[in-house]
Design a protein that fits this description.
Number of helices: 2
Radius of gyration: 22 Å
Shape: elongated
Order of helices and strands: HEEEEEEEEH
Mean pLDDT: 85
Strand content: 25-35%
Strand order of the largest sheet: 7-1-4-3-2-6-5-8
Low-confidence stretches: none
Largest sheet: 8 strands, mixed
Number of domains: 2
Amino acid sequence: MSDSHTTEVVTGSMVLAAAVGFFLYAGQIVGLSGSGDSHSYSASFRTADGISVGTDVRLGGVKVGAVTGINLNPETFRAVTSFTVKSDVALPEDTAALVSSEGLLGGSYVELLPGGSPFNLEPGSEIEDTQGSVSLVQLLMKFVAGSEDDQ
């Protein structure tokens, strides 16, 4: 009987250790590890399709931050997106923000394109140069409509 309890305790400990390891790994993937400081920025997009809280912010294809909030500006009807960027990443003043996609079936992310300005954005600044998401359906409709006009 004591042998049965020992086996149950060992098996339960292994399952518990695997669960803790899984949650730690998932936290790192999602970005909840809390490693390092970050600075907040904002950008206003005409369309922000596919972007939600937690979406990656990438620079040169490398994740450098995450989207922390999206709100509609009722005066301009634009999507005001706030996001964080690692504090060791200095963004030039003329940095552009784009809503990009990973491919036809992939997800969307915010891509930062640094400019050549010698001056950097202050934390909390708004990135002025933005480009919203591109709708694949609208592009296909323009292509179809354009091909009918050619005939």
